[in-house]
Give the backbone structure.
Amino acid sequence: MVAPRSAATVMILRDRDGVNTPVAPRSGGRPSGRGVDVFMLRRSPTMAFAPEMMVFPGGGVDPRDADPTLPWAGPSPAQWGRLLVADEATARELVVAAVREVFEECGVLLAGPDVDSVVGDVSGPGWQAERASLLSHERSLAQVLIARGLVLRSDLLRARAHWVTPEFEPRRYDTRFFAALLPAGQIADDRSTEADHADWADPVALLEDYAGGAALMLPPTVVCVEQVAAAGSVAEFLATEVPIAPITPVPARVGDAVVMRCTLPEFPARHLQTAGETAQGHLPRTGQAGPGHLPPAGEAGPGHQKEVGE
């Protein structure tokens, strides 16, 4: 069994009726309306892990994320450790990795001159050079922030979930999922070197595309997108407290089918996919149970099974 690598991923969110440009109506004519948009990347087909999957910005923890000189504001690593159920050093690395990966992959920087402010537009050439230096491992996030006179704003992040890749997978990740509001004045872009497409998505439309086979997503992404789709605003989503317990899908037989089963903190059990469909965790296509078969947020209580992919 391969030991999982620590990783962090972030749902960057914006209110659709806010100052940002709204998502255009879908081809079917249905307007996006009010709600929350989430920034998504489609991983390049050449990627070794999760090719062509729609994902949130994120990636593995880097040794440089442990740099003790990094300027920090907001909840301390010890506080994050209690929230993430991790030791202080690991929690610090996860938060730093989350901020670094978001900046590397979509140009959003969760930092500011002090605890009460956030840096504005970081899309200029100088900032692009900073991103390149992080991607090349020439510099650490600590070095970039110190040079710019900024502090990491850990208070801008909210912990949302903790998923661990199934034990039989050749590549495994122990991933904490975070969420954050797009800072005012910043622009999420499509310059990621690991994606062939990046843009804002209406989560409801994304789930429709997934159910119809037009979009591929890993099980953790589907669950998180469902939660975003149920939110009326970013503030509402970020204010909702959720239990952060590790979720590891395992094979299980249900009738004649072998599925991947996991226990979500708010639901006793859920079947995620038919075993053998793909080692990367593709979810079922049209004709099989999909996200549209799930109860609306808040309806399912203790003892209610949510099933996908039987």
About this structure: The chain has two domains: 5-239, 249-307. The chain is about 25% helix and 25% strand. The first helix runs from residue 77 to 84. The helical segments are 77-84, 88-106, 125-135, 141-148, 203-211, 219-229, 234-239.
